[in-house]
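Weekend entry, working from home. Most of the wet-lab plans are on hold until the incubator is repaired, so I used the time to fold the two sequences that have been sitting in the queue since the last round of cloning. Logging both here for the record. First:
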Amino acid sequence: MSLPNCPKCQSEYTYQDGDLLICPECAHEWKEGEQAEAEAGAIIKDANGNVLADGDTVTVIKDLKIKGSSSVVKVGTKVKNIRLLPEASDGHDIDCKVDGIGAIKLKSEYVKKA
């Protein structure tokens, strides 16, 4: 019987303790059925329904005001090399750097894959 890789760090050295699976490298613990749920929840899609991945280039589809600043990210701004944040609780699931503004977080519903 082969145990699945860790859903958090993809380590192949998982082991079973009772009904839990444990990763010795990142100390993540989960039940075997939860792995599929975690992987399904990690899919982030753009405004058109395209699946996004780390390193993608996206285009902003709406003027976005930056909270606490007078800056605005304009429609059509290309953002390169995004990083996805699947466990974001506030809905901002893309971490990126925008030229002229700096590091910000975006919601995937306001971007489309370029």
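Second, folded right after the first finished:
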Amino acid sequence: MTTLPACPKCHSAYTYQDGALLICPECGHEWTVNDNTPTENANIRDSAGNILQDGDTVTVIKDLKVKGSSSVVKIGTKVKNIRLVEGDHDIDCKIDGFGAMSLKSEFVKKVQE
């Protein structure tokens, strides 16, 4: 049995492999098996040019219509613990009152903590 490396983000020893990815169950960080580098794209930026990372908190900068619904995500809605993904809608998140959703980074602003 091979020993998996510790999480590069939180240094947890409880990592597990899922296909080509290594995943940390404690912080949710994912990275590839082959090169041990993070899978998230370091070039994903918010509307103000701040670099976004997994786990960041952002706010919505304009009212966004929810596709397939008459609901609207209002300006100023705070979204916690985002997850960066590849594609046009590059943020996966859960929004209170709406559930799981994908957002474009151009419509959010990072909350400075």
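Plan for Monday: verify the second prediction. Residues 1-37 form a domain with the N-terminal domain of TfIIb fold (CATH 2.20.25.10).
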